[in-house]
Specification:
By secondary structure, the protein is of the alpha+beta class. It folds into two domains: 202 residues, Tetratricopeptide repeat domain (Serine Threonine Protein Phosphatase 5, Tetratricopeptide repeat, Alpha Horseshoe), CATH 1.25.40; 147 residues, Roll (Ubiquitin-like (UB roll)). The protein is built from 15 helices and six strands. Strand 1 and strand 2 form a beta hairpin. It comes from Stylonychia lemnae (Ciliate).
Length: 383
């Protein structure tokens, strides 16, 4: 490798720590940072509609001009690679004044290097592995996987396998990570990093299996389908928690996925004012509250003697943070400042379940109150 790329981080533990911090502990950006980025983006030579004398003096333009396009294809690609690693290493070494800009520029350089027509396998490896590192820092785990696989075509390295495994672990695709780890062990059996990642993937997969067994709404489902449905809920950011309400055993409660990949849920409806309940056996994720509740309130309920509860007089809520999530990662970083969250009638069930303070207590539970009743005030004032 050229001297300008000597600072490349090959210690996976360091790389992983920085990556994890970026993807899990992001702080809100200030308005000044946002405005600075906008100005940078507008004025950057890559985005300019025309060049001005002032722009020609910018260090960004001069750097890009030096890179492109002097020399042979492999020389140009090496220049882009070196500049890409310079930007990336500023982030990895925690020496960046603006991480987003440096990562964006590094990806651009790796892209440009890969567009050059050459057959230097070592160079291609470093371009792909560099872009994989940059992409994993910004949470582009699918692109990270693709680049790590491409890098392996040109050079077998422990690093390409570990980045590949981590790209799967971060999206909770533990089976894939285990498969890649098993393959990596055949080539790098003494690698501490590979062994540690494989153990992590196996441990997390085992925890998932245990959580799946705790979900009462999937007990009647075949084992292979259980995992498929659980992963579908995870991919749709639905958080499942411990059970709060217990229905009679004769009531069949089951979550299932249809041929179009849509989830169907049993939904419990509570009317706290009258200690009454309704139960909808099959509520598809893309159906709104209006879709079901108009039918529910088409006729007066036997417990509603005064006929107060009508579709145009009701409000729908769910209880925020009502239970403990089965997966500790799903715990909200901050508690809701309200016990009940109001839902719009046009919201789909999926939108409700995806709310950051909604932990589904095995199956969805919604509460309905009459907006004109005195009970509503005491209900909303619950602590």
């Amino acid at each position: 490798m050229e001297s300008t790329a000597k600072a490349e981080i090959d210690q996976d533990s360091d790389f992983y720590d920085i990556m994890q911090a970026r993807n899990q502990n992001k702080k809100p950006r200030t308005q000044e940072e946002v405005e600075e980025d906008i100005q940078y983006f507008v004025n950057h030579p890559l985005n300019a509609k025309k060049m001005t004398p002032e722009m020609l003096e910018l260090p960004e333009y001069q750097a890009l001009q030096a890179l492109a396009y002097e020399g042979s294809a492999d020389e140009i690609a090496k220049n882009f690679k070196n500049h890409g690693y310079d930007r990336l290493n500023k982030v990895l070494m925690k020496d960046s004044k603006n991480e987003s800009k440096d990562i964006e520029e590094s990806i651009y350089c790796f892209d440009q290097g890969l567009e050059q027509k050459h057959d230097d396998k070592d160079l291609l490896y470093y371009l792909y592995i560099g872009r994989a590192k940059a992409n994993i820092l910004i949470g582009q785990f699918g692109k990270t996987k693709e680049d790590a696989i491409e890098a392996r075509k040109f050079k077998e390295s422990e690093q390409s396998w570990t980045i590949l495994m981590r790209s799967r672990i971060f999206v909770e695709k533990y089976k894939e990570a285990i498969d890649y780890g098993t393959q990596a062990l055949k080539k790098f059996g003494d690698s501490r990093v590979v062994n540690d990642l494989l153990k992590k993937a196996k441990d997390e997969y085992k925890k998932e299996e245990q959580r799946i067994e705790e979900i009462s709404t999937m007990r009647s489902i075949q084992q292979d389908k259980k995992y498929q449905i659980y992963k579908a809920m995870r991919s749709k950011q639905i958080k499942i928690g411990k059970q709060v309400h217990h229905l009679p055993e004769i009531v069949e409660i089951s979550i299932f996925e249809d041929d179009n990949g849509l989830l169907h849920f049993p939904v419990l409806i509570l009317y706290d004012e009258y200690m009454a309940t309704d139960f909808i056996q099959d509520w598809r994720e893309d159906q709104t509250l209006k879709d079901h509740l108009e039918a529910v309130f088409a006729e007066r309920a036997p417990w509603d003697e005064k006929g107060k509860y009508k579709f145009n007089t009701i409000e729908v809520y769910f209880e925020a943070d009502s239970t403990t999530p089965l997966d500790p990662k799903d715990k909200a970083k901050d508690k809701s400042n309200k016990k009940y969250v109001k839902c719009n009638m046009d919201w789909t069930l999926l939108k409700i379940l995806q709310h950051r303070h909604h932990i589904v207590p095995q199956y969805p539970v919604i509460k309905i109150v009459c907006k004109d009743s005195a009970f509503r005030t005491s209900f909303l004032n619950e602590i």
